[in-house]
Amino acid sequence: MNAGRTGVERGAYEGASAAGIPVTGFVRQAARDELGNLPPQLAQQLTPCPGRSKRLAVQRAVDTAAAVLVLVPDPDDVSPFPVVQYVLKQARRMDRPVRVCAADAPSDDVLAWLRAAGTVYITGPRETRWPPGVSVARRLLRALVA
To answer: Model's pTM, two decimal places?
Structure first.
């Protein structure tokens, strides 16, 4: 599941695509993120959300997913990332299972949880707030199919 954001979500998309895992999700109507236009191959897989709200695609991703995985530099402190806080609040509101994981290599139990969870919204900080998030998510998806 994807909400058309940079960083962790872009890395998850790249890893899933390389591994042949289908990607679905939502995107702002303009199909843009903080870096400009979304890559066309990603934009084609996402459903546009009406309106101008920057968080509507995120809300729809949480609403639609069976579970939410949040990748962050420090799982004990998500305060530097307002959208991550919003995702966690929405996931609690929708009673979705949530895992908040550190940037280091995913543990076997996280990978097992992902495999069992069904459609998972994988998210975290955007690229300008945490540049390593792209590669962290990409590695996670590679480990998932290994």
So the answer is: 0.93
